[in-house]
Write a structure and sequence with these properties.
Radius of gyration: 35 Å
Number of domains: 2
Number of helices: 6
Largest sheet: none
Number of strands: 0
Order of helices and strands: HHHHHH
Distance between the termini: 20 Å
């Protein structure tokens, strides 16, 4: 067996961390969905703009019929051309904006929903798996021989490394001396408790 990171929390600490990690993942996923939804809502404006410019284009097409009327036709002809050109440009811009917003909603939603969670999982999962392997190894050894002196010595050394100072001092005035003298049972049981295990 090998020693894990001395800063690793106990069984209770890992349960709390599991809850916090799950909450973190849910929070960022929900935020990603919210951002995706809000950008899609903004995209509705492009649809409204396309409809409005279509109406203006149809109006300009209708006004072209008036261009042949003497006096009035000559006055409105330049404006009809400007309205038509503006509506065509605006429609193209609205379609481009629609496409860009669709892509942005997906990219932003996915990035917000996944990236913070993946970064946390990259940091947390290896440590959590290492903890599970350590607990499984100790559990298996306990099942094979719960009274093994070698196991008690190993667990006592872990206790000296991992237990907080106040808890350690409550167990022993000189824990390293106890380990050196082979008086390991109390320290070993304290480490088992930290691991969430008990002797059968």
């Amino acid at each position: 067996m090998r020693l894990a990171d001395p800063q690793a929390p106990g069984a209770r600490g890992y349960r709390l961390l599991d809850i916090l990690v799950a909450a973190w993942l849910v929070l960022w996923f929900a935020l990603g969905v919210y951002v995706w939804h809000e950008i899609r809502n903004v995209d509705k404006l492009t649809g409204t703009l396309v409809k409005t410019t279509t109406a203006l284009r149809d109006t300009s097409a209708a006004l072209r019929q008036v261009e042949s009327v003497p006096l009035i036709g000559g006055l409105i002809a330049p404006y009809v051309d400007k309205i038509y050109a503006t509506t065509v440009d605006t429609q193209q811009g609205a379609r481009d904006a629609h496409s860009s917003l669709l892509h942005l909603s997906v990219v932003a939603g996915v990035a917000i929903a996944l990236v913070p969670g993946l970064l946390l999982l990259i940091l947390y999962v290896p440590q959590r798996l290492s903890w599970r392997r350590t607990v499984a190894e100790v559990r298996r050894t306990l099942a094979e021989n719960p009274q093994a002196a070698v196991l008690d010595a190993y667990l006592a050394r872990r206790a000296v490394l991992y237990l907080d100072y106040a808890r350690l001092r409550a167990i022993s005035a000189d824990p390293w001396a106890d380990v050196g003298a082979g008086d390991c049972r109390t320290l070993a049981d304290a480490e088992l408790a930290r691991l969430g295990l008990t002797r059968s």
